[in-house]
Amino acid sequence: MSGSGSSHIPQTVLVTEQDAEPQFRPGSLPVPEQGGRTELLPVVQAPSDEETTQFRSSAVPPSAGALSAGPSSADGLLGQFLRDPGPFSFDAAILLMLRAHGANGAGSAIRFRAPLGTAYPAADVASVSLGERGFVTTVTPMGLTGPAGVLPLHYSAELVSEHRLHSSALSDFLEMLSQRPLAQFAESGIKYRLASSHTLPEHVPAADYARTVRKTLMALSGFYSPDIAPLLGVDPGTVNFYSGYFSTMPRSADRLKALLSDWLGLPVRVEEFTPLWVHIPPDQQSFLPLSGPGGSLAESFSQLGVDAAAGARYLDCQSQFTVRIGPVDWKMFQALMPSGGLYGPLLKLIRTFVGSELQIMLRPVLKKDAVPLLQLPTETRASSPRLGWSSWLSCQAKRKHDADEPVFTERHVDMAGNH
Question: Which of 115, 202, 207, 242 is the most exposed place for a label (fewest CB within 10 A)?
Fold first, then answer.
């Protein structure tokens, strides 16, 4: 995945050198001053009053007489729904009818009916028509009678017999009883789906809509608590935008790869089980038991198979992983170094996602054609090579492989100022 776009991050955020300012696609970094990935409103936004009025006027006016006259555009989405409701799901049909009617609730805009018989339903919406007060639709997912009816089967059989006698008294009575539960069921399918509810501003006041969405996404991500939110190392807008990843457990390497690839706009690979040498404190190293005061034995950590360890360190293969980024060009590589402006936000985003239990190692890979020659700073070259970070001593004119030798950890952040 590669980034595109003309938007870039301010110099104070990325790197200190003017010539090392890379170009990023819009929204790739959590900068509060800019929109894009850190701003949720451009992604999920309720329609304005003008847009809602335009939609209703192009579909079906809210008045009963206009509804009976039918839609003004037979080729529109509402016209397709009235001609053939089969391809529409239950929630999509309810949303379309509510937007076209303009009512605040499904009970005012839609009259629900149950299909006759117990045949297997081929679609969620069997039929739809325009009545005096709104839409009249036959739905199959829920009801008192029909294929999904909760009443005993003989009620559905009795309705078929009454229909043959051209009597609708029993059917109308049962539909009256089921109208309110079906309307509430239909509204719940919209209320708890942000992608649907934002198109009906009456569900959430316009002034509180943005705050409500942000609060909901932060709660789904697990960071809405007043005690946790201030401790976030990244911009809350970034967490909101990637709330789908943050709200899913367990947080696997594949999800981290997908998150970072989209956030950076670069190829990312997560290498698990990177070996890590862990130093053992001197007071916890194994030694022969010694007699303490009163003849008691001091703690010696010498039980084989329990707490004994040879040496002052041990190799841990479960507590560290490596994030491999690239290959990238020279400017992006400088931004990914500990002295660059992208290293800190990237490390904080990873730490927020994986927690504090694991160690993080970053390995930016520089393209082989972008590896600079080892030379001292000059008037035209302001940046100096950094030993172990951005300096390569090569005997060949061109490298055969990309440069993946530099590896950075969290301790390099403190070293960046003195390196």
Answer: 207
CB 229, CB 218: distance < 8 Å = yes
User: Reading across the β-sheet that carries 268-271, which strands appear in turn?
Assistant: 268-271, 320-328, 359-366, 408-409
pLDDT digits (tens, 9 = 90+) for 248-299: 888 899 999 999 999 999 999 999 999 999 999 988 888 887 766 655 556 7
Model pTM?
A: 0.56
Give the Cα separation of 122 and 141 in Å (integer): 11
For the stretch 8-40, pLDDT in tens is 333 333 333 334 444 444 444 444 333 333 333
The sign of the CA dihedral 240, 241, 247, 252 is negative
Q: How far apart are CA 267 and CA 347, in angstroms?
A: 16
Tell me the C-alpha to C-alpha distance, in Å, between residue 298 and each of 301, 313, 401.
9, 21, 55
Contact 164, 116 (CB under 8 A): no
What is the residue extent of each domain of the chain? 18-33+249-415, 49-202
